[in-house]
Structures are given as C-alpha cells and as structure tokens.
C-alpha cells in the first residue's frame, strides 16, 4: 500500500474515555506524519459533529480515521452511510468501553491501531438500521441500557469503564431499581411472533455488549446479514438480575426467561414509549421499532478472524 497517495480524514472526540485532547491529537498527527500520510484533523465539540464531518468531507478522502468511543464510531458510520460511495473506516478506540474494538481486536495504542491501515487489512461489516438511524454493534432497551449515556462524562474520564458500575450501583441505586420494571412488547422477527413482558432486550452484532454480556464466538458472524437478538423476561429484583447475567455469560439460554435468537428483520411494538440505547448513546423513546440490516454496509480496517465470513 502506497500510503503517500492516501488522504485521511481524522475525526477525534477529545472527551472520549480517558483521552486528553492535545495529547491524543499530537500522538495521531505524529504517527501519521512519520508514516508519510496526508491528513486533515477535525475535532468534535458536540453531539452530531462526527456524522456531519464524515458526511460533508468524507468523499474528499480515501480513508476516514475515527478516534473516540463507541458513540463517536456510531456517528462516523452514520455519516459514511450517507455518502454516495462508502469510504473505508479506521478506528482508534479511546472510549470507556469500546465493545466493538474488543470484538475486532483493535488496540487502543495509536501506532498499533494505525498498523491495520498500513497493512490494508480490512473487513466488511454489517450495519443495523433502527428506524431512521444506523448503529454498528448494539441497540438495547431495559435495565442497564441507559447507563452508558446517563453516567457523567467526568466520571468516565476518571474511572473509565468502572464508571458504569460506580454511578448506578453506588451513587444512584434508585435508578437501577427503577429499570427493573418490564415493558410489554409485540415482537415480529424472521421465525415468528412473540408477545410478552420483557425487562431487557438487545439487537447486536458483536461478541461483547457493555463489557458485561459476552456471546460465544461460534454464535456470531459480523458480516453474515444476521444480527443476534437477546431477550430477558421478568427479573425478580437485583439478586435475580445477577443470576440471569451469570446465565447469559455462560451462554445458558433456557428459551423461556432468556431467549437468544437470530434475525435479519425485526419489528417491535411497545405499549408505551420505551428508551433505547444505540451503541451507548440515547436512541430515542419509540413505540414502534423497525429494524433491518445493511449487509456488508461498511469496510473497517481490522485483523482477519473467524468472526468474518469468507
């Protein structure tokens, strides 16, 4: 790969995780300059900036390099999906959780992450369509889903991933208890219809969700045109919640209280407006959800592994 001929648009979220604005920018600029790339840096200052940068300027570049957390990557992908030709995306994970980077094996070290671009190692990746928005690895509702966007940014900067446990479990336990209330929903998916009360639900394309839920690698493919659907019926208090979490981590899906399904399309109708999290950011409070997949929607620079279909 002749990196001197490649132009990069670098989108940096200086507030993600524990990063420091100047240091993160200087590190990336130093590595790219050393490797001989042409690049321009855009720094986000508010929600939506990464989407706007990718959508407005992306077609002028060969590669878009996103530096931030899952939310920044989500915004960048939404911008790329709006382009007439989708520019490949590089990712430097600097957020508090970075579940997708964990799945893809992308390190947070700047030079190591950029090595994927240097070697031109890239894979296609399915993108989820949630009503009128895109998400890359998870859309969820119910208990715990709001932690990622209600936990103060200052706590994330100080404690990293641990902030998601400190804030709800220690500082605001009432918020945790209030999230146990189930919601009634009718679910139409590829193999049928389910209607019941559920405490938690997640549509995902990853082996890791929120750093807590992990899926068996043999159950997940990142570019097969299928997402995974995890549903949890009623949770009888915090102890029962931990018990169920343990069962999920052991991949013990009983088909009754814990359902693990695969689907390409999905429609949900809730009795009341229900909050959703899309890649860790607030996704609105819809009554109706229309889900589909953009098969191999984007290209991501990452190591080849068994999670990708050949």
Task: Write a concise keyword list for the protein shown above.
single chain; 310 residues; Tumour Suppressor Smad4; 10 helices
Summarize the helices and strands and which ones pair or pack.
Layout: E1 7-12, H1 21-35, E2 38-43, H2 49-57, E3 63-68, H3 70-81, E4 89-93, H4 99-104, H5 110-118, E5 122-130, E6 133-135, E7 138-142, H6 147-150, H7 153-159, H8 163-171, H9 173-178, E8 183-189, E9 192-198, E10 200-204, E11 208-209, E12 213-214, E13 227-232, H10 238-249, E14 258-263, E15 266-270, E16 276-278, E17 281-282, E18 288-301
Parallel strand pairs: 1-2, 1-3, 3-4
Antiparallel strand pairs: 5-6, 5-18, 7-10, 7-16, 8-9, 8-15, 10-13, 11-12, 13-14, 15-18, 16-17
Helix pairs in contact: 1-5, 2-3
The CATH topology of the largest domain is given as Tumour Suppressor Smad4
The number of distinct structural domains comes to 2
- Look at the helices and sheets and give the structural class: alpha+beta
What distance separates the N and C termini? 22 Å
Rg, nearest Å: 19 Å
Describe this structure in words.
The chain is an alpha+beta fold. It is 29% helix and 32% strand. Strands 6-5-18-15-8-9 form a 6-stranded antiparallel β-sheet, with helices on one face. Strands 14-13-10-7-16-17 form a 6-stranded antiparallel β-sheet. Helix 3 links the parallel strand 3 and strand 4. Helix 1 runs parallel beside helix 5. About 4% of the residues have low confidence.
Overview in brief:
By secondary structure, the chain is an alpha+beta fold. Helix content is 29%, strand content 32%.
């Amino acid at each position: 790969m002749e990196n001197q001929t490649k132009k990069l648009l670098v989108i940096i979220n200086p507030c993600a995780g524990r990063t420091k604005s100047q240091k993160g920018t200087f590190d990336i600029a130093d590595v790219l300059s050393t490797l001989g790339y042409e690049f321009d840096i855009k720094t986000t200052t508010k929600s939506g900036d990464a989407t706007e940068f990718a959508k407005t300027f992306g077609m002028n570049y060969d590669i878009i390099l996103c530096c931030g957390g899952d939310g920044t990557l989500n915004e960048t992908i939404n911008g790329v999906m709006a382009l007439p030709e989708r520019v490949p995306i590089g990712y430097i994970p600097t957020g508090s959780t970075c579940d997708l980077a964990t799945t893809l094996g992308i390190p947070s070290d700047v030079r190591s992450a950029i090595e994927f671009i240097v070697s031109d190692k890239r894979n296609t990746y399915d993108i989820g369509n949630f009503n009128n928005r895109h998400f890359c690895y998870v859309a969820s509702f119910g208990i715990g889903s709001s932690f990622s966007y209600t936990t103060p940014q200052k706590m994330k900067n100080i404690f990293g991933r641990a902030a998601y446990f400190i804030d709800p479990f220690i500082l605001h336990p009432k918020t945790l208890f209030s999230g146990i209330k189930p919601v009634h929903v009718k679910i139409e998916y590829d193999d049928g219809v389910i209607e019941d009360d559920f405490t938690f639900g997640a549509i995902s394309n990853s082996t890791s969700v929120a750093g807590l839920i992990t899926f068996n690698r043999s159950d997940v493919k990142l570019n097969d045109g299928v997402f995974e659907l995890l549903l949890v019926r009623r949770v009888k208090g915090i102890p029962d919640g931990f018990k169920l979490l343990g069962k999920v981590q052991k991949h013990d899906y009983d088909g009754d209280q814990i359902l693990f399904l695969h689907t390409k399309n999905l429609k949900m109708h809730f009795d009341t407006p229900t909050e959703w999290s899309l890649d860790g950011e607030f996704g609105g409070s819809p009554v109706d959800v229309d889900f589909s997949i953009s098969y191999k929607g984007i290209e991501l620079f990452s190591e080849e592994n068994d999670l990708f279909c050949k």
